[in-house]
């Protein structure tokens, strides 16, 4: 994220853009200000980020609140893998394309507990 945001690397051509990152089962990583900065770099075309998570993976719903009491936010595209034992499917969401309530439920610990 930092290399993608640094104009020095863009000007020198040291880092090929966009920087692309794919993570699997990752927890929340930043608060509101981090998400605003991340969205800016993403919208500028310097960064592409995909989070892959399985339905039922509680790790991807943690932590709820930062040490200073602020809520954590996911960033980037989310590819959520689903299975009912017979059939598999996925959903793709982005924080800016899904309303807050739906995103909160899809990423909640209660919804993602394994039975």
TrEMBL record:
InterPro entries in alphabetical order: AB_hydrolase_fold, Fungal_lipase-type, PLA
Sorted UniProt keywords: Hydrolase, Lipid metabolism
Pfam families registered for this protein in UniProt: Lipase_3
Entry's Gene Ontology molecular function annotations: phospholipase A1 activity
Domain Fungal lipase-type as annotated: residue spans: 16-65
UniProt keyword Ion transport, yes or no: no
GO biological process, one term: lipid metabolic process
Gene3D superfamilies membership: alpha/beta hydrolase
UniProt protein name: Fungal lipase-type domain-containing protein
